[in-house]
Amino acid sequence: MTRDTSCMEITAAQFAQIENCLPTQRGNVSLSNLQVLNAILYVAEHGCKWRGLPKRFGNWHTIYTRMNRWSKAGVLDRVFEQLQRSQVVRIKIEAVSLDSTSVKVHPDGTGALKKTARRPSASLAADGTPRFIWLPRMLARP
Q1: Would you say residue 98 lies in a domain?
Q2: Buried b vs exposed e over 17-30: b needs ≥16 C-beta within 10 Å?
């Protein structure tokens, strides 16, 4: 049985260069920050769903929860910036925005009743943030 290894997986020595960007682990944790970071890199590289993570990374929900927390706190931005600066992993993040004006409607959906209660505002900020699909791409192997 061959082990599926990721090109963007980082080693313990490489992790030591960016460890200061991550929060200190507290309490009884089942996964180290290195394991979680490698799982996040795996999802970024392969574009799989969180539930599709290989079992070797651990519980997908634990990894997703920690990634979500790190993302909201700005930790992932610092980590990826430091990974780029240290040339441990070279990736480029691209964003694709989908808008209902560019998506064709199925013929069955054209006759639906319109909702008139909500009126779009003139301000984009009032309508909420746009939805993005992040497409990480590996630039080159370090």
Answers
A1: no
A2: ebeebbeeeeeeee
Torsion, CA 44, CA 18, CA 78, CA 84, rounded to 10:
-60
Residue 112 has which token pair?
A: 């639906």
Range of the domain at 42: 12-90
Are 111 and 67 in contact by the 8 Å Cβ rule? The answer is: no
Question: Looking at the domain assignment, is residue 122 inside a domain?
Answer: no
Q: What is the identity of the amino acid at 41?
A: L
Distance CA 33, CA 16 (A): 11
pLDDT digits (tens, 9 = 90+) for 38-92: 999 898 888 888 999 999 999 999 999 999 999 899 898 888 888 888 877 766 6
**Residue 53 is assigned to a structural domain of this protein:** yes
E strands in the chain? 90-97, 132-140
* Dihedral over Cα of 61, 4, 78, 27: its sign: positive
Tokens representing 26?
């507290």
